[in-house]
Amino acid sequence: MTNINADKLSSARFAQATDAFVEVFTASVDFDQRMAHQDIEGSVAHAKMLCACGILTEQEREAIIVGLAQIGQEIINGDFVWSVKQEDVHMNIEARLTDLIGVAGKKLHTGRSRNDQVATDIRLYLRSETKQILAQLTRLQSAILNLAEQHADTIMPGFTHLQVAQPITFGHHLMAWFEMLNRDRERLQDCYKRINIMPLGAAALAGTSYPIDRQMTADLLGFSRPSANSLDSVSDRDFAIEFTAAGSLIMMHLSRFSEELILWSSAQFDFIEMPDAFCTGSSIMPQKKNPDVPELVRGKSGRITGHLVSLLMLMKSQPLAYNKDNQEDKEPLFDTADTLINCLRAYADMVPHIEAKKAAMYNAAKRGFATATDLADYLVRKGMAFRDAHEAVGLAVRLGLESQRDLSELSLSELQHFSALISDDVFAYLTLEGSVAARKHIGGTAPDTVRAAIQSARQNLLSAANEL
Ligand code: ARG
Q1: 36 phi and psi, to 5 degrees?
Q2: pLDDT digits (tens, 9 = 90+) for 6-40
Q3: Confidence at 436, pLDDT banded by 50, 70, 90
Q4: Mean pLDDT throughout 149-156?
Q5: Which among 78, 94, 110 is the end of a domain?
Q6: What 3-state class would DSSP assign to 345?
Q7: pLDDT(365) > 90
Q8: Range scoring the smallest mean pLDDT among 136-145, 148-157, 280-289
């Protein structure tokens, strides 16, 4: 009996050729060729292990390694011919290897399956993407630290409900962003531990009858250990979901960061000047300078959360072990990694050039009665109950609103009208500088506290950046 699918690696059992549309429909090579170098790296380690275990000869191992190196070079040079007939990256490389080295190429797949192979490739790929994301995150975090240092005592209004609440320093606000990104870093670093486990040797699902040494392959590939269960190894993609969840949180944080930059660069806020190099004009309105980079990043955050939901739904209800559904994990995953790297890079490049308009920030804090809480706290220190103080200050604010003056601009006798407890020491508390300086506990906005927070964050970032 002849093999009608002789041009394929795995089709002898079929009496009919694959439908032409199905061939294209089920192929993944258009996108998974992106993992070619990981696939080669995994195959080299597998071949070395097979030889060490007496399953391949040294000649066969060498022929495989040399052949794979040549294929790697062909791919880099753009000379490699990808074919949907070979379905995916794994079969394309294996077919080419057999073209190049003959029968030894056909022995490479001994003791493995594409199921453990693809799971390994994704993990190798995610390891390197995670490192690149962390590198961009570190650049962004250190840019934020530098800007925060310049603005440790730049006063601005802090908001709740987007209404002026209390004065803070711009440095303190920047450090809030730093903290969010720092938790993002920790999440990614933690996720890396679960990415860095090796599925190879699980084969199709049940393991293999060859006397393989999985620890050796794991060591060769720099994985922390071989996976513990063969079925789990080939089926679950929870590490990819976790990576995308960590990515969604990064993008959610960047979207909030973006939103504030967009608001602050508007004429209505006018708190910052965005660097020209990161903005674009309008094709019709000559005066426009649009904060495109933050807007685009804000928009891209939705798409990463979309990928997270896609991957969760992809995995949901799948019976053990491998199912073809899992081929659908790659595109959302690749796009998540690309988007994260690009957005973090754009932000790391842009943040050092953000200019704070100190006078506008200061005036905005003054206009919003931002020290009202300080006046209430002052009255409490003088013996008034907080609720009564809240009431008295509310009346003072009303007078300020009616006469268009800040609390610090009311006279002593006007203030004393609201409480006899007020004396001329009150003005030290009503200034914006006094208000921020008073908040000097851990996590507070006092300039010296902010400087100390920046210093310890810088130390932590240095050691964290060396961790992965
Ligand atoms: N292209 C497949 C994927 O990405 C590789 C594994 C296919 N395994 C199989 N038995 N069909 O998941």
Answers
A1: -55, -45
A2: 666 656 889 999 999 999 999 999 999 999 999 99
A3: very high
A4: 98
A5: 110
A6: helix
A7: yes
A8: 280-289
Candidate list 10, 224, 266, 282, residue with the active-site label: 282
Residue 20: asked if its preceding bond is cis (omega within 30°), the reply is no
- Does 94 contact ligand 1 (Cβ within 6 A)? no
Residue 5: pLDDT over 80: no
Query: What pLDDT sits at residue 12?
Result: 82
Query: What spacing in Å lies between the alpha carbon of 369 and ligand 1's midpoint?
Result: 63
Residue nearest atom 2 in ligand 1 by C-alpha distance? 327
Q: Which of the listed residues 24, 88, 91, 233 should we mutate to test ligand 1's pocket, taking the one with most ligand atoms within 8 A of CB?
A: 88
At a CB cut-off of 8 Å and minimum separation 6, what does 392 contact? 376, 379, 384, 418, 419
Residue whose CA is at the smallest distance from ligand 1 atom 11: 324
Q: Does residue 235's CB lie within 6 angstroms of at least one atom of ligand 1?
A: no
What sign does the CA torsion over 232, 233, 236, 242 have?
A: positive
Q: Are residues 196 and 320 in the same domain?
A: yes
Ligand 1 contact, 327 CB (< 6 A) = yes
Please say if 161 is a catalytic residue: yes
Residue 2 lies in a domain: no
Please give the C-alpha separations between residue 283 and each of 277, 286, 296, 462, in angstroms, as whole numbers. 17, 7, 18, 44
* Cα–Cα distance measured from residue 149 to residue 168, given in angstroms and rounded to the nearest whole number: 14
Instruction: Provide the residue range defining the domain that includes 60.
Output: 20-110
Residues 351 and 370 in one domain: no
Residue 14 forms part of a structural domain: no
Mutation to probe ligand 1, out of 117, 315, 324 (largest number of atoms < 8 A from CB):
324
Could you tell me if 196 and 343 lie in one domain?
yes
CATH of the domain at 429: 1.10.40.30
Atom of ligand 1 nearest to the CA of 204: 10
C-beta separation of 142 from 421 below 8 A: no
What's the gap in Å between 28 CA and the centre of ligand 1? 8
Percent of the chain residues topping a pLDDT of 70: 98
The string of pLDDT tens digits covering residues 72-85 is 999 999 999 999 99
Among candidate residues 356, 377, 395, the one where a domain is terminated: 356
Does the residue 213 lie in any domain? no
